Amino acid sequence: MRILISNDDGYLAPGINALAEALAPIADIVVVAPDSNRSGASNSLSLDRPLSVQRAANGFYFVNGTPTDCVHVALTGMLDYRPDLVVSGINNGPNMGDDTLYSGTVAAATEGFLFGIPAIAFSQGSYGWANIEDAARHARDIVQRYFDTLPKPYLLNVNIPNRPYAELGKVVATRLGRRHQAEPVIRALDPRGKEIFWIGPPGATKDAGEGTDFYACAQGQTSMTPLQIDLTHKTQLETLAKGLE
Ligand code: MN
């Protein structure tokens, strides 16, 4: 099996190192990741400048671009083969509910899926990298167990609680929960006295009920959500069509 690995925290992040180490014994892996932290990059492509690919001492490739750039360049320019699977992560912190729209971790997997390749985005339930090696071993279990058993191609969003390996195991199928609107920007003054803004934290959970990714992770379970690309609001489509007649 050949696996393309990317992330949004950058090629030096502990999460992608742990994931690559865990997957190397079971697959031919190649790592192509951003040269810096591009969390929140969503599905953006860099169209205003060229991209360059460099190889680090450990064999990882890094790109001066977004997670989507990385997977796009790998699939359409770098690799002379088609990977069997694209995995992304493991992200520093959760990607649940509305987070998935902003996430570069999910976006890297999505780019693989758009090319018809099965793809899995992995994130940890909490920030700070606690138990990252346990999460990576658990991610390998998931790849081994589900790679061939699910109808392909699939796009899976997986959130793993920060727990020791022995306490991981139960994987539950979930739907995305919802958050309240994001907190306001944080205002500050730059050293020259000019007002600046930092994007604030995401909103608190709004729909975190049973069946959601938020609920599963809060119960200490690994959440697995199958994603799709089509954002069409199918129930409004007919109403809209009538309204436009
Ligand atoms: Mn990230």
Concise account of the structure shown:
With 245 residues, this protein is of the alpha/beta class. It has helices at 14-23, 67-78, 99-102, 104-114, 132-146, 213-218, 234-243; strands spanning 2-6, 28-34, 53-55, 61-63, 85-91, 119-124, 155-160, 171-173, 178-179, 186-189, 195-198, 205-207, 222-226.
So, the CATH homologous superfamily? Survival protein SurE-like phosphatase/nucleotidase
Oligomer: single chain
The total domain count is: 1
Rg, Cα atoms, Å = 19 Å
Tell me, briefly, the overall form: globular
Low-confidence stretches are: none
User: Which percent bin holds the helix content?
Assistant: 25-40%
Could you tell me the CATH topology label.
Stationary-phase Survival Protein Sure Homolog, Chain: A
Structural class: alpha/beta
Kindly state the number of beta strands: 13
- How would you sum up the major sheet? 9 strands, mixed
Q: What is the name of the CATH class? A: Alpha Beta
Order of helices and strands: EHEEEHEHHEHEEEEEEHEH
What is the distance, rounded to the nearest whole angstrom, between the alpha carbons of the first and last residues? 52 Å
